[in-house]
């Protein structure tokens, strides 16, 4: 058995052990029953963090323009994570050749003919759409937005509820001056800490390099290494279930979003939803009867 096959088999076995309402497809989780309910309940609580910031909820497309990610230097920084939206060249002869072909090749992959140019990518992070959507805006005041996206990141290996090709991400994004954004992130951290305590969880706030920059390919890394802009919420000493991110004015400058005539600063509070499900299971067990009353605990936190 190959190392990849062994890893996949072990992951499938782990999924069966994790919870009966979880099915594993080798790189993505299928949730049903109580786990799907827990996933939705967690997302609803995190969305309410946006309500406290008067943040409208926005539903963005699954696809994001390759041109927009190119402006972020994403392809040079993270070529290994990209999942491209591709399609066949629509030339009739090319389509006919594909239709008459075998469909699948001997390696299990699609037996492709000539491809059209790749112009879109499956969303790698929920907040990217916010900056694209606000491009060219002059903000009259601090502005917050919340969104949930199915995000896609190609990884070296996968594990149920922990590392998946596609996964749910809820973010609350703030844009404004540096002081406004820092105050927003401080409020977010305080509220998350209160939720974690109320839910009987324990996390370590751990500085990490920002996912928008790669240490070996982006010169902006040096500045963020000296002054970390990403702090992860680490569960069990190993699993980052969310993060607090201060982007400085990188996105404001890149997308010409301004506040007071200057490039806007931005930041986000992000939650990996399947990973929060895993944390609940790790701490409180498989029986839904033992899970914390998420909404009741949140109500006390959100009283402000």
In brief:
37% of the residues lie in helices and 23% in strands.
The ordered string of helix (H) and strand (E) elements is HEEHEHHEHEHEEEHEHEEHEEEHH
Please indicate the percent range of residues in DSSP E strands (runs of 2 or more).
15-25%
Rg, please? Answer: 21 Å
Number of domains: 1
Q: Name the average pLDDT.
A: 91
Main beta sheet strand tally, sense and closure? 6 strands, antiparallel
Strands of the widest sheet, in order across it, are: 7-8-14-11-10-9
Helix content: 25-40%
Report the count of strand segments. 14
State the distance separating the first and last CA atoms. Answer: 56 Å
Structural class: alpha+beta
Identify the CATH architecture.
2-Layer Sandwich
Name of the CATH superfamily? Bira Bifunctional Protein, Domain 2
Shape category: globular
What does this protein structure show overall?
With 304 residues, the protein is of the alpha+beta class. It has a single domain (3-64, 124-301), classed as Bira Bifunctional Protein, Domain 2 (BirA Bifunctional Protein, domain 2), CATH 3.30.930. Helices cover 37% and strands 23% of the residues. A hairpin with a 2-residue loop joins β12 (258-259) and β13 (262-263). It starts with a helix and ends with a helix.
Which labels suit this protein?
three-stranded antiparallel sheet, six-stranded antiparallel sheet, BirA Bifunctional Protein, domain 2, alpha+beta, 304 residues
Helices and strands in order:
Blueprint: H1 3-18, E1 22-24, E2 29-31, H2 33-52, E3 63-65, H3 66-71, H4 74-77, E4 84-85, H5 92-99, E5 120-122, H6 128-133, E6 138-139, E7 143-152, E8 166-176, H7 178-198, E9 203-208, H8 221-226, E10 230-235, E11 239-248, H9 250-254, E12 258-259, E13 262-263, E14 265-272, H10 273-284, H11 294-301
Parallel strand pairs: 6-12
Antiparallel strand pairs: 1-2, 3-5, 4-5, 7-8, 8-14, 9-10, 10-11, 11-14, 12-13
């Amino acid at each position: 058995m190959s190392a990849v096959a062994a890893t996949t088999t072990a992951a499938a076995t782990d999924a069966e052990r994790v919870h009966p309402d979880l099915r594993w497809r080798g790189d993505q989780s299928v949730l049903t029953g109580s786990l799907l309910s827990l996933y939705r309940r967690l997302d609803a609580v995190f969305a309410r963090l946006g309500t406290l910031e008067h943040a409208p909820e926005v539903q963005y497309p699954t696809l994001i323009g390759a041109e927009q990610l190119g402006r972020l230097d994403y392809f040079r920084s993270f070529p290994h994570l990209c999942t491209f939206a591709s399609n066949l060249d629509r030339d009739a002869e090319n389509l006919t050749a594909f239709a008459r072909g075998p469909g699948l090749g001997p390696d299990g992959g699609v037996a492709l003919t000539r491809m059209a140019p790749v112009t879109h990518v499956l969303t790698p992070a929920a907040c990217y759409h916010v900056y694209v959507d606000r491009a060219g805006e002059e903000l009259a005041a601090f502005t917050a937005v919340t969104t949930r996206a199915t995000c896609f990141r190609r990884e070296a290996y996968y594990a149920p509820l922990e590392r998946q090709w596609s996964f749910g991400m809820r973010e609350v994004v703030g844009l404004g001056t540096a002081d406004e954004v820092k105050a927003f992130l401080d409020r977010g951290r305080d509220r998350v800490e209160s939720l974690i305590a109320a839910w009987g969880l324990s996390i370590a706030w751990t500085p990490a390099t920002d996912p928008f920059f790669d240490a070996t390919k982006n010169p902006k890394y040096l500045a963020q290494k000296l002054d970390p802009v990403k702090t992860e919420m680490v569960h069990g000493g190993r699993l980052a279930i969310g993060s607090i991110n201060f982007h400085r004015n990188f996105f404001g400058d890149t997308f010409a979003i301004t506040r007071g005539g200057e490039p806007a600063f931005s930041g986000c509070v992000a939650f990996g939803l399947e990973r929060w499900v895993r944390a609940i299971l790790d701490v409180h067990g498989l029986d839904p009867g033992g899970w914390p009353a998420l909404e009741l605990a949140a109500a006390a936190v959100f009283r402000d």
